[in-house]
Amino acid sequence: MPVIDIHAHYGTMPYSLERQTPQQIADLAKAFGIERTCLSSSVAIAVDMVAGNQQLAEAIQGNAALLGYVVVNPNSPEESVEEMRKYLTSPNFVGAKMHATHHGQPLDSPETMQIVKSLLRYDKPLLVHVPDSKGLVELETLAKAYASCPIILANMGNGDWPLALHIAKRATNLMLDVGGADPAADRIKHAVEQVGAHRLLFGTNTPLVHPLYALGMVRDAEIPAFDKERILHRNAAKLLRLA
Amino acid sequence: MDPGMETNAKASAIFDGFTVFGAWPNRPADIRVETLTATLDRHRVTRALTICAEAIQGDGMTGNDRAMAAAAKDARLVAVPVLNPACYPFCLNELERMGQQGRRLFATFPETQEWEPDCLAFRPTVEALAALGAGLMAEATRPSTVAGLLRAVAGHDLPLILVGANYRNLGEVLAAATVHPQVYVETHLLAAVGGLERCLQVLGEERVLFGSGAPLGYFSSAFLRARFAAVTPKQMANVLYGNTAALLERLGCP
Q1: Taking CB atoms and an 8 Å limit, are A183 and B224 in contact across chains?
Q2: Hey, which of A105, A140, B153, B252 would disulfide with A74, CB 3.0 to 4.6 Å?
Q3: Cross-chain residue pair B198–A17, CB shorter than 8 Å
Q4: Which of B28, B188, B218 lies at the smallest CB-CB distance from A190?
Q5: A146-164 pLDDT, tens digit each
């Protein structure tokens, strides 16, 4: 079964880790059965949105294993709308990415709403990284305001995953990325029971999390094999319209 | 999933350097001792250091007795008593009690137990551990905890296992291990691409210990990451088994 990783990063990060080339990312993923990897630019998230998006577009060009998210930032809503216009008509870009830890804006701010409203025209999902429980509450407001926009919560909200599950029950356009650096052994099973496997997606958060670390979570999750297949492949293929 | 990812006991014996059983107050996870032993069965784990959660967040004496009882019932388990300097001076009594029962490896959880490694109560604990010839496993997921622990053990001949190294504190962990030859690194949160390999490069192959955090954490996350690390077979065998076994032997642990 070809695995789809809906959450990975390209570019330097301020940690004691080595930078990977696009081909190294694809090769590492392929070694463990991941055929498609959806990347956002770390530079666009943490430093320069426009330059980072451009670097990512060049990095994934011509590499069928790599897809992109265009990073958007509510501190620059007009520029974000322009960035989406530049990239989201390309089949190489599967959606938009917003990292609230870095941009610091409330997820229910008018600027955030403006960006998501513009995203609707592309019919592609928004991947959101939320810093804390306050951000999750804001995310619920955002998700309900744009119920036709699929929103993926990165890392299932990390340590706040129990709250994320409650919110996902109320905001039905919210999907959950089951990966990340928190290996809490009960969270995927609870997510399947409370939200349903059809709303769960496999993400690694590579390079901060090795693909095997994330795959190990799904491997050990006490859920039916069919649900694992949905999480690892089917749901993402349908959401992102990947063959 | 790739059949090559199946746990393979023939490839390497496994000594899990960090397991926790009991109950965890903010988690609905099933971490009973029976779940722990079933996890060891499923993944063919040869031996495991184990800690009772009650000793971390509740009564140390009761929790440590539970860990000892669990180890008495299952020969794979090696009980690691927990010390909580916030309970000074009772933690010294507990150290003495467990020392009399032959324990030479202890654990402490400054972040979960909410005390600072620079606190006054930790100093006599460190001195007593060193006098006993014991080693200490210490929770250290933040850079500041690593630095505080290093200050606290400076000048003592005390093996210190940092539990919970991760990409956020990896730089501090590597710096600590560089200046202090008695620092070991446990791997259950060492998830990043290249993180484990970097530790082996900097620390050498004898100071990295595989741990899973199971059953509180997914065993396969930590195991697959370690098992398929880009290292030599000898390094792999040391990380997965040899280093923890050698440390216990050196400490004279039963």
Answers
A1: no
A2: A105
A3: yes
A4: B28
A5: 999 999 999 999 999 999 9
